[in-house]
């Protein structure tokens, strides 16, 4: 009888690391950024009002992103019954998938699950990845899809049977289609660049299947065009032109937003790689020295993946650091492979120091776990009345006796991590593993204590609270100019508010009924002139996302 296959220690450790990083973050804070509120509100309007084919926000067509990410958030919401938790959970699970794919890729490229697990752990703990991974953003979701497409194309190239090649090609096509349905046709380019750069440097001509690549691109593009066509039948042909041309060619050639110089990525990437940027120079040196050793060409292929992607996006007109999100699995694996080559620390350092420093870090982990457990156990007594939406707070605090078992679970998890680290033979591996879990423990502690404490300073909930308490239901609320970030709709649970230009306030104010206006202070000061301004009085203002948001009402 075949024995059931047990999970490897590397897999258990990687999932435990992910749990420390992301489970406390599910409940720690409300949306703090415009994009988070926008994506959550698009998903909410899709789920509440049935706009599955064409995304909407503020009861109007939303033309910035395709719908696949929002579909997934709504599906998860059907299970957890809360859009905020669903958004966080969708992103967190996508990063878990990315880490597991990194582990699989490490086994495929280097024949080592340990290198893959280290690579996945490094990817999860890069400052930038953890930051976007604890927000409701598309980039972590895009990382998982593009990594899946790249891995599938590699398998399609190296597999020896046509049936397996057909299956991997189909998987690559689905991943490519999902990538395009998340961020547009750039998904095809990102997957193709990664697969070609890594595959050719790793295995030469045998490392890439042109048929699989073209099939995946064609099927992915065709499915995306099918969705755009069906959506245009519902929204109008202007939607087809907007999504196919302005959101793709326009962003690449002449972007109307995020215009930056070509060297922007090179200048900003080092701080995004904290804290592991300190290991990157030695990893590059080690990769070059070991280029002819086992796995050397695979390591150089990972660096080719990174460099080719940076060059591609550097030539595009619009630039954001999130565009480089798909390179982080390759960066994590590249650094992990450098660690495995034992070249990260100078050889003349005393070997006793190499053994003692990791041991001291490992010894400190249970104390960090105890602090984390204490913080989680105290969570129900923290002043969180206005820190989380009601459903989210109830899901965390109102569960009978939930916080104490969870706190104890995290303490046991950290203790187990210490036990796993002690089994590693190489001092450098022990140091890196201890560093990964220390970073994760500190992140969990921050999300259990600091984030809820600061949440009220960064959320727009007080604006909604004021309106719920003071604006009568029969009086009209409008946005000044272009307020489509979804903040009022999300917090007030309404479908849409009217948007007015400053010159339209006089005409609108002459109609019966009292008028309320939400505006940024600068917009109100610069755009609204007397006598229209004199007809209103300031009711409430709040600092949010670096700007002052004001609520004005007719006198």
Task: Describe the structure in your own words.
With 555 residues, this protein is α/β, with parallel strands linked by helices. Helix content is 65%, strand content 6%. It is built from 23 helices and seven strands. It has helices at 9-22, 34-49, 68-80, 83-110, 113-125, 127-133, 139-158, 162-183, 186-203, 210-235, 237-253, 264-272, 280-289, 296-314, 328-340, 351-377, 390-397, 403-423, 427-458, 461-470, 487-492, 505-509, 521-527; strands at 56-57, 60-61, 476-480, 498-500, 515-520, 536-544, 547-554. A five-stranded mixed beta sheet has the order 4-3-5-7-6. Helix 21 (487-492) links the parallel strand 3 and strand 4 (498-500). Helix 1 (9-22) crosses helix 18 (403-423), helix 4 packs antiparallel against helix 5 and helix 9 (186-203) runs antiparallel to helix 14 (296-314). The chain is globular. Residues 343-355 and 382-403 have low confidence and may be disordered.
Ordered list of secondary-structure elements with their pairings:
Layout (H helix, E strand, L loop, with lengths): L8 H14 L11 H16 L6 E2 L2 E2 L6 H13 L2 H28 L2 H13 L1 H7 L5 H20 L3 H22 L2 H18 L6 H26 L1 H17 L10 H9 L7 H10 L6 H19 L13 H13 L10 H27 L12 H8 L5 H21 L3 H32 L2 H10 L5 E5 L6 H6 L5 E3 L4 H5 L5 E6 H7 L8 E9 L2 E8 L1
Parallel strand pairs: 3-4, 3-5
Antiparallel strand pairs: 1-2, 5-7, 6-7
Summary of the model, kept short:
The protein has 23 helices and seven strands. It is of the alpha/beta class and about 550 residues long.
């Amino acid at each position: 009888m075949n024995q059931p296959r047990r999970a490897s220690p590397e897999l258990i450790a990687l999932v435990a690391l992910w749990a420390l990083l992301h489970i406390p973050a599910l409940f720690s804070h409300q949306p703090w950024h415009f994009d988070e509120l926008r994506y959550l509100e698009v998903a909410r309007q899709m789920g509440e009002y049935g706009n599955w084919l064409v995304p909407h926000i503020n009861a109007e067509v939303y033309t910035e992103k395709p719908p696949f990410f929002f579909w997934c958030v709504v599906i998860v919401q059907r299970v957890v019954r809360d859009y905020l938790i669903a958004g966080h959970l969708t992103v967190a699970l996508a990063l878990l998938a990315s880490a597991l794919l990194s582990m699989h890729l490490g086994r495929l490229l280097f024949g080592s699950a340990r290198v893959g697990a280290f690579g996945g752990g490094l990817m999860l703990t890069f400052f930038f990845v953890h930051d976007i991974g604890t927000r409701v953003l598309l980039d972590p979701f895009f990382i998982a899809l593009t990594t899946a497409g790249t891995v599938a194309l590699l398998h399609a190239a190296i597999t020896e049977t046509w049936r397996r090649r057909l299956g991997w090609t189909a998987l690559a096509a689905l991943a490519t289609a999902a990538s395009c349905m998340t961020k547009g046709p750039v998904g095809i380019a990102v997957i193709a660049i990664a697969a070609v750069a890594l595959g050719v440097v790793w295995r030469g001509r045998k490392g890439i299947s042109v048929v699989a690549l073209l099939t995946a691109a064609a099927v992915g593009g065709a499915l995306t065009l099918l969705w755009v066509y069906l959506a245009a039948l519902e929204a109008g042909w202007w939607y087809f032109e907007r999504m196919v041309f302005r959101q793709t060619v326009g962003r690449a050639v002449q972007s109307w937003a995020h215009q930056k110089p070509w060297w922007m990525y090179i200048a900003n990437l080092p701080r995004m790689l904290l804290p592991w940027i300190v290991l990157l120079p030695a990893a590059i040196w080690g990769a070059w020295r070991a280029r002819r050793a086992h796995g050397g060409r695979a390591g150089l292929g990972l660096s080719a993946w990174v460099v080719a992607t940076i060059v591609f996006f550097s030539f595009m007109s619009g630039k954001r650091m999130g565009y480089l999100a798909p390179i982080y699995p390759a960066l994590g694996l590249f650094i992990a492979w450098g660690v495995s080559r034992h070249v990260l620390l100078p050889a003349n350092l005393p070997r006793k120091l190499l053994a003692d420093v990791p041991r001291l870090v490992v010894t400190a982990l249970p104390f960090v776990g105890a602090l984390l457990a204490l913080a989680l156990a105290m969570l129900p007594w923290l002043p969180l009345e206005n820190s989380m939406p009601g459903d989210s707070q109830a899901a965390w605090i109102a569960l009978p006796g939930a916080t104490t078992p969870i706190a104890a679970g995290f303490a046991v998890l950290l203790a187990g991590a210490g036990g796993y680290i002690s089994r590693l033979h190489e001092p450098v591996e022990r140091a890196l593993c201890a560093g990964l879990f220390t970073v994760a423990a500190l992140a969990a502690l921050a999300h259990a204590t600091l984030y809820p404490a600061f949440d009220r300073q960064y959320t727009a909930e007080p604006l909604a609270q004021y309106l719920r308490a003071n604006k009568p239901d029969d009086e009209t609320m409008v946005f000044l100019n272009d307020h489509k970030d979804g903040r009022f709709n999300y917090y007030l649970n309404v479908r849409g508010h009217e948007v007015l230009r400053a010159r339209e306030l006089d005409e609108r104010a002459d109609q019966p009924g009292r008028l309320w206006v939400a505006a940024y202070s600068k917009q109100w000061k610069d755009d609204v002139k007397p006598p229209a301004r004199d007809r209103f009085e300031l009711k409430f203002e709040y600092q949010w996302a670096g700007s002052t948001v004001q609520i004005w009402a007719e006198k």
